[in-house]
Specification:
Chain lengths: ~140, ~140, ~140, ~140, ~140, ~140
């Protein structure tokens, strides 16, 4: 990449592996692996690594939002998948689908998840088409 | 509404109350109320009621998809809300937010739900911008 | 609006009525009314009128795309509504719903339109969730 | 698939061919083929077949919504495509594009369809940006 | 709000004014006002304030992402508006439209912004409909 | 393509190269290349070329909207990318990403662009979930 000039698309998008990463990036990778109890880091983080401040910022966000809380870990992934399917994000559907399965999602739960996402997208469209007025009891 | 002619917007969209509904519609309302253990029916159903076959079809879908299963009732509503927020459907956000609260969603859970929906919409956008390739381990 | 400075939101968004419009804008209004056989112009055009080149450009687009062709006028409005509902655009749903009714859309057709839009949004979501591979026969 | 455990992604997404399908699934396939006058079933149905109740439910929905009615079959497919393009659903665009062609869509009609979908997405965005107020005449 | 129970919708969504805010929230409000050189805080922050950790997290994100950088402040707001219009988010369109005007957006720039957003939504739809293949020169 | 009959998907979507183009299409290609100071035309135009009136219409739109104005050329591409990423349009992200780089977008600017697009999609979702009311000061 030339100084202050254009960036080649491929260069800015190839994953940076642990072996090739500077110390500040390795530190984030290590925290991801320790937190998630894995021995590898996925492409989302390895591509964000091209800009370490963004890698740090997004990991801090994910750690806080997806960490232990009032919702159990599997439920959090199901919510994440619902958004990702609605946005048709192939990467996130694959990534969070895998996370959901690792957190115990069964085939039956998966089926129900997909059915709910579909039904919700349908009734959202109905609501728009029919210009539904919000019921007083819901306010 | 004139035969074979135009339909006035407002006529086709005003909720049909139980008192004004024909027997076939009342039958569906009664099943909704019995299933949901409520004494009223919301605007979504009361507007679909203008076309009884659609009312029946959508209630059959909702009853099957949102009924007891491998996912608990609250989780099903959280998934529904995740889709509805992503689609910015005001009616469905209000309707399913109320349903979630009725099924026990606490303030803390609500906060986490909103945070996850926001984060997922953000990372979905990152994934598109960065043209992330799906990791082999996710296939 | 001050020269080269900020624009107040409301000023740039209030409809410009025929009576208050400069000749170049009136010319477009007249073509709209002549083409659509109406005696009034809706808010979309009257707000675009703040920038006459954009008003001209968009009317030229609409005239060409929505004019007589291989699809009949009502079908063109139904397609327009399908997009507008999917995008939950309240203004366009109202505007094109009225246009569809003026072009003969019956209550039954309206019901079927809404049902198809809902079903399509549902199966689009299923397709994303299930990562459906395109059948050879469709290529 | 192990009892109560994780489901492998690929297993739950491979199409189930007629030859490998249990009787209850074959029954639905046969009704699809008889209704659509074809000798094959596409991947959407063959993947849903992993959960026969969902296959039955969605075929019942499609049969009712896309069956004969006040809108002709081609118009129904054009509406379906308008939604699918707006949602950028590659599978559905391919599937319903093929269906539209089978129902008589000409090259000229296809061109007009694409042009309308594009224009509607554009004006929907304008309406949001300009916060257009719905005209009284549209209510 | 009752312990472990439901949260009333309105309670969790009313803005918390500075006067009524606990010290940890006031600290964030003060940093927002100091950074943005304003004497008030908008509803987005005042509603997030119901959960101080989220208020802190989102302000940290906004401060880093929207702060001084390689893109000038007005350009950052124009990008923000492009996303918000595409998602038809009324609140964000109003909020960031005001921010853009405060940062010097002229009426002419506003017109061009809206035109580009519209055109991009149109060609995005064309690209999906036509299943455009990415040119080699773009990879 | 047979007269009045179906159009094969692939035929209507293969790019028409300059060498194979009729004079009216070549004229548009030449104007594109002259305006953009390039010696080639991308797939978007070469596929639209199947319908010369649409090719002309869309080039006229793009020439007017993306031409010199109150916003500099790079800013216009950044706005275009913000929309395209939000719509997850792979073709347009690649095409306009290349255009942005050609107009001087640096790696740092690219990083900031992606961060803003992500943050905006997140806060748009928050705004919908929280049903934020527009502040008086924004009207």
């Amino acid at each position: 990449m030339s100084a202050g000039g254009a960036v080649r698309a491929s260069a800015a998008r190839s994953p940076i592996e642990y072996e090739d990463a500077p110390p500040e990036v390795r530190a984030v990778y290590e925290d991801i692996m320790a937190t998630r109890k894995t021995d590898w880091v996925n492409n989302y983080w390895k591509v964000l690594a091209h800009h370490p401040p963004t890698l740090r910022r997004m990991w801090a966000n994910a750690k806080e939002v997806m960490g232990p809380g009032a919702l159990d870990p599997l439920t959090k992934e199901l919510i994440y998948m619902a958004v990702s399917v609605t946005n048709a994000c192939r990467y996130c559907i694959a990534s969070h689908g895998a996370a959901a399965r690792n957190k115990g999602m069964t085939a039956e739960q998966y089926t129900e998840l997909v059915a709910i996402i579909g039904l919700a997208n349908e009734t959202n469209a109905h609501a728009a088409a029919l210009d539904l007025q919000i019921d007083e009891k819901f306010r």
